[in-house]
């Protein structure tokens, strides 16, 4: 019995020291090498309100570019997906409702032309980006609602298109940055 208890106690003490001391210090050190020292990227709007640019925000007003749907209600305290597969009836109802809403607010858009990221949530539920196509398909609605020339809104979208991350994946647009600049567009 002594042969099992002493190693178990030692292993417990080692794990406590490592996971409550060494590991956090190492992670903090790595974060200090990251851009902005791991504090996130904070943006301020024209009204003095602060936002994290790397966390998805909900935009559902017609005068803004809509964000990607979120399975967690854009709650950064608990990121995650719905964990429902593509054959799940509840999931299909949720996606169909998103498609119907998108088409209602963007008349003249064909269902087949809606990018999938505009009607499906990301794995984290906090994705701050939409595809370039997802932004471009919303231009007509925003120009009409705001009474802005469509070409100005298109130019704004083009200016916010970011290349693929690490050279892989589609071009993307940060919705928060785009909408903040949209508010400043004259």
Question: Keyphrases for this structure?
Answer:
186 residues; mainly alpha; three-stranded antiparallel β-sheet; two-stranded antiparallel ribbon; 5 strands; 45% helix
Written description of the protein model:
- The protein is mainly alpha-helical.
- It has two domains: 39 residues; 144 residues, no CATH class.
- The protein is built from six helices and five strands.
- Helix 4 crosses helix 5 and helix 5 packs across helix 6.
- The longest helix has 32 residues.
| DSSP strand count | 5
- Number of helical stretches of at least 4 residues: 6
Shape: elongated
Alpha carbon gap, first and last residue: 78 Å
Structural domains: how many: 2
**Side-by-side strand order of the widest sheet:** 3-5-4
Give the radius of gyration: 22 Å
Strand content: 5-15%
Helical fraction: 40-55%
Mean pLDDT: 89
């Amino acid at each position: 019995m002594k042969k099992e208890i002493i190693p178990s106690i030692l292993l417990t003490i080692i794990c406590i020291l490592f996971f409550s001391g060494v590991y956090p210090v190492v992670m903090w050190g790595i974060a200090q090498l990251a851009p902005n020292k791991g504090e996130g990227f904070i943006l301020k709007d024209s009204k003095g309100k602060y936002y994290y640019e790397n966390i998805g925000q909900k935009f559902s007003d017609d005068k803004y570019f809509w964000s990607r749907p979120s399975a967690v209600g854009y709650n950064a305290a608990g990121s995650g997906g719905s964990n429902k597969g593509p054959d799940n009836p509840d999931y299909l109802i949720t996606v169909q409702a998103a498609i119907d809403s998108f088409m209602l607010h963007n008349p003249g858009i064909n269902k087949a032309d809606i990018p999938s990221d505009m009607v499906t949530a990301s794995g984290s539920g906090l994705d701050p980006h939409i595809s370039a196509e997802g932004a471009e398909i919303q231009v007509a609605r925003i120009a009409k609602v705001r009474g802005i020339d469509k070409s100005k809104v298109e130019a704004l979208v083009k200016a916010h298109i970011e290349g693929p991350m690490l050279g892989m994946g589609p071009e993307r647009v940060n919705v928060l940055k785009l909408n903040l600049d949209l508010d400043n567009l004259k």
